[in-house]
Design brief:
The protein has 420 residues and is of the alpha/beta class. 34% of the residues lie in helices and 17% in strands. Strands 10-9-11-1-12-13-2-14 form an eight-stranded mixed sheet. Strands 3, 4, 5, 6, 7 and 8 form a six-stranded mixed sheet that branches. Strand 9, helix 9 and strand 10 form a beta-alpha-beta unit. Helix 1 crosses helix 12, helix 5 crosses helix 7 and helix 11 packs antiparallel against helix 12.
Length: 420
């Protein structure tokens, strides 16, 4: 029976969505702006520009998907070969490709992933205002009292890497956790792994998860860090843990497991789906290690299974930090290793490369950007073709549900991309 390998490049948008104006994101283009930034700023030993080079993703249709999304070609080819007017480039494009827009109300991680899995988020998440002391006093009072804390630090919107340098020493001295948020529907708690304790941090986040439910907050994130003084603190990405609200309807993952199939989750996928519909979890942090874990999961996965990987660093390490060079070189690393995955595909296996939202590293602020996502299907069963743009991410999940012969999802339309 068939298997599906879904690699999600977290935040890899390919051009602003039709409703981007409402989010302040009209003009955002994660792929296009990274490619332009690298052409202007990255030089080789000979002093010539080193353009963004993604030949394997280009062969799956990425460059064409971007042109379909934006209406314009990239200034420089991702493969080093000029793009032809023919949608399939004379046979060079090997997969079925398109772009997709989101119908969920937000541009956050949970909404994007859930919609791909067939469950759009049409309600509004709760958010904490961007002002000092942004959390409701009664929320913090309960957290301090029930958590047995001497108090908390932070209480504001902040970059996690910045706030631990700012408050890490005081946290270690006082035992007060660092509590902060962002433009996402999230409450984050940073604590030192040794002086506060990792399990104690997890317990505190479980308490916070229960306390934020009345405020419709999507996630509480444990952010452990190590180090001895300001300037030397480092977050321990491998020990990050997201306590997320479960999806309000059955997802592709739920339906596959209910039908006797398997879901092998790599990286933060298990947390995003609240560990529901997960058969096996492969924790990993860092692009290379996430790729390693994905390769292992594909080797382990039986027939009638889904391997679902999230490459979070594109978002957390590069997009939010507005690091265009790091983002571009991370994409090149993924592209170099992509043949490893392709070599593991059996005659009925299908690879889907996609994303959940944008996070244009050249854009103002540090928030996600409301963008279309790439949709790249590849495998022996897939007919190479350009697919019309999709009006919801849920078309992806519905297509995979049909291919895996599981119960149809409540949203989306299955695509006809298969060889006869």
């Amino acid at each position: 029976m068939a298997r599906v390998i879904l690699t999600l490049l977290d935040s890899f948008g390919i051009g602003y969505a039709h409703d981007a104006e409402a989010f302040g994101d009209r003009g955002a283009d994660t792929l296009g702006h990274i490619a332009a930034w690298m052409a202007d700023n990255r030089k080789g030993a000979d002093g010539k520009p080193r353009y963004l080079y993604l030949p394997h993703l280009a062969a799956l249709g990425l460059e064409k998907a971007h042109a379909l999304s934006t209406g314009t070609a990239l200034a420089h080819s991702l493969s080093g070969v000029p793009v032809q007017a023919d949608p399939l480039d004379g046979g060079r494009v090997r997969g079925a490709y398109t772009c997709a827009e989101e119908v969920s109300n937000g541009k956050d991680t949970l909404s994007g992933h859930w919609e791909i899995a067939g469950v759009p988020v049409r309600f509004n998440w709760g958010y904490f205002p961007d002002k000092p002391h942004c959390f409701p006093p009664e929320l913090l009072e309960h957290l301090i009292r029930e958590g047995g804390l001497p108090g908390v630090l932070g209480e504001k919107h902040a970059s996690g890497t910045v706030i631990i340098q700012e408050l890490g020493e005081e946290h270690m001295r006082t035992g007060k956790p660092i509590v902060y948020t962002s433009a996402d529907s999230v409450l984050q708690i940073a604590c030192h792994e040794e002086t506060f304790g990792l399990e104690r941090l997890y317990d505190l986040c479980r308490l916070a998860y229960r306390l934020v439910q009345p405020y419709k907050i999507a996630r509480v994130i444990a952010r452990p860090f190590v180090g001895t003084k300001a300037g030397h603190f480092e977050r321990v990405a491998a020990h990050r843990h997201d306590f997320a609200v479960p999806a309000h309807e059955p997802t592709l993952l739920d339906n596959l497991v209910a039908a006797g199939g398997q879901v092998y989750a790599v990286g933060k996928i298990a947390d995003i789906f609240a560990h529901r519909g997960i058969s096996k979890h492969y924790p990993a942090a860092g692009l290379d290690r996430i790729f390693d874990a994905t390769v292992q999961a594909v080797k382990d996965a039986p027939d009638h299974s889904l391997v679902f990987s999230n490459f979070v660093d594109f978002d957390s390490s590069f997009g939010h930090r507005r690091d265009a060079l790091g983002y571009g070189e991370g994409l090149e690393m993924y592209d170099r290793r992509l043949p490893e995955l392709l070599s593991l595909l059996g005659p009925e296996d299908v690879l889907l490369v996609t994303a959940d939202h944008g996070c244009d590293p050249t854009w103002q602020g540090t928030d996600h950007t409301r963008e279309k996502i790439p949709v790249l299907f590849y495998g022996q069963p897939v007919r190479a073709q350009q697919v019309p743009p999709l009006s919801t991410f849920s078309d992806l999940g519905q297509t995979l549900a049909a291919y895996l012969h599981v119960k149809p999802l409540g949203n989306g339309t299955a695509l006809d991309i298969w060889k006869r």
